[in-house]
Specification:
Blueprint (H helix, E strand, L loop, with lengths): L1 H18 L12 H13 L6 E3 L2 E3 L2 H5 L8 H8 L2 H8 L1
Antiparallel strand pairs: 1-2
Helix pairs in contact: 1-2
Length: 92
């Protein structure tokens, strides 16, 4: 669980820099897990950063820059947060 929080915190810190979104009003201890999870979901499902074209998955450079900080099973981890069309395309 601790490692998962690290992944989400990294995304939380990087997402506002790359897409002007993220946590707008700060992080709060009482709801930190929910905030981090929502930022991860928003970032992974951001079509400007992560998308499928044909059979090729394109992901944000953040994942390349910090590849050693994300799990070895990156596609499986990505599926945890993928939603909507991204999730259905990944499952196909």
């Amino acid at each position: 669980m601790r490692r998962a929080v690290c992944y989400m915190l990294l995304i939380c810190l990087m997402f506002p820099a790359v897409s002007h979104a993220g946590v707008n009003n700060g992080l709060y201890a009482a709801v930190l897990d929910a905030q981090l999870e929502q930022v991860a979901i928003d970032f992974i499902n951001d079509e400007k950063s992560n998308y499928l074209a044909g059979n090729k998955l394109y992901v944000s450079k953040v994942f390349n820059w910090f590849s050693e900080d994300f799990p070895e099973d990156f596609p499986g981890w990505l599926m945890l947060y993928a939603q909507g069309s991204l999730k259905s395309e990944l499952q196909a």
